Amino acid sequence: KYAFWETQPVAQFTEGGEGEEGPIDAPKTVGDVRAEPYNLPDSFEWCTCNLDEEAVAQEVYELLSNNYVEDDDNMFRFKYSASFLKWCLLCPGHQLEWLVGVRVKASRRLVGFISAIPAHVRVGEKTMAMVEINFLCVHKKLRSKRLAPLLIKEITRRVNKCNIWQAAYTAGVLLPKPVATCRYYHRSLNPRKLIDVGFSRLAPRMTMARTVKLYKLPDATSTQGLRECRPDDAPQLAELLNASLKRYKLAPLFSPEEVAHWFQNVDDVVNAFVVESPDTPGRLTDLVSFYTLPSSILGHPQHTELKAAYLYYTVATSVPLRQLVSDAMILAAARGYDVFNALDLMHNETFLRDLKFGQGDGQLHYYLYNWRLAGGCSMAPQDVGLVLM
Ligand code: NHW
Ligand code: EN5
Fold this sequence. Notes:
16 strands, 9 helices, Aminopeptidase, binds ligand EN5, three-stranded antiparallel β-sheet, binds 2-oxopentadecyl-CoA, 13-stranded mixed β-sheet, alpha+beta
């Protein structure tokens, strides 16, 4: 069990409460890090995926569209758009050598990928320069050949070369050892389609007409002063957001430049809305944001794509969080989304029931690389203030 993960500096299932909070590996320097890439099987080669090149962005998009994460019943597969991948991976401070690909030598075909982006993440009292790892993918035809451990070791090497020793990542699968485990919740916006494609079911003793009525939303939002976030909001929004994230045990810290990047309005990629105080023009009091992640509907005769919004970061100071999220759902419904998703982290428990979210069948485990929590303990979903794409 876990032949690879047992060799890595991650908390193990077997350990008791002995460890101190802190790094798991003995401290190293950049000079200690292996200079050469890890050896791949003979027919493969490493590459750096420059997503600034449209053709390369398209290759990564196609690899993921055909081979990335599916639900437990293989009915849906995440379909991150090329523009989403560029937004996500070409963020402030990005390093092209952290967009690692594996190609077949003979054909140059891209068959593997993993990414890292820089972030400052606080765990308890300690804020560290880390990376966030995402989009690990091996082509379906090349599964179970131990390519994933090579991708992980190679990106670790490239990140260590930049003097970064910790990482955060999430996965639906159980690995040693989660720092937290969250649940997905789903709010139907287009119940007829969701039922048609098997994403949800008609509840017992409910008709389609009653279901459609149950999930119907108003046309207009209710929060006074709610407007699209603008680039010049970034400095004040960074203050507001960082202050709000202090409440959690695991949370990022955003620079104004990062806020300007992550909280933009780009159609079908990300949407961010702020509340500008109706009393004090220019003063920002609240934030609500969501990102767009469609899924392919596998093997359905009519429908091919599910359009999902995922709740991203929120800050509620002048109105209840439930009202901000309700307005975000109204805006998403008007923009043609089929479903609005959220995790049970941060303070999301305070609105899930009232806003008619239902628990999904998926989990999301949070992990840290080379960092142990005090006593090997994990935290509750409500202690998590970090959202990864
Ligand atoms: S989670 C989404 C991951 N991607 C997918 O699920 C896509 C569909 N699946 C695949 O493409 C978000 C393949 O099944 C993958 C595994 C590539 C997943 N994380 O090559 P082998 C992320 O991207 C372990 C980590 O034979 P395969 C986060 C597995 O337990 N490890 O399998 C990524 C086993 O190890 P074990 C995973 O099916 C975080 C080994 O891989 C994993 O052909 C990465 C088997 O390898 C997963 N999701 O390929 C870690 N799934 O110990 C970052 C399986 O059990 C760490 N495995 O023998 C930090 C690095 C940076 C540090 C910097 C300081
Ligand atoms: C790393 N950044 O399982 C991400 N999704 O619940 C990688 N279920 O959509 C980690 N199975 O419950 C990703 N409908 C881990 C998640 C992988 C994808 C996944 C789950 C999350 C999901 C849906 C569809 C299930 C289809 C059958 C689901 C029920 C919704 C229903 C709506 C009405 C009220 C009750 C619930």
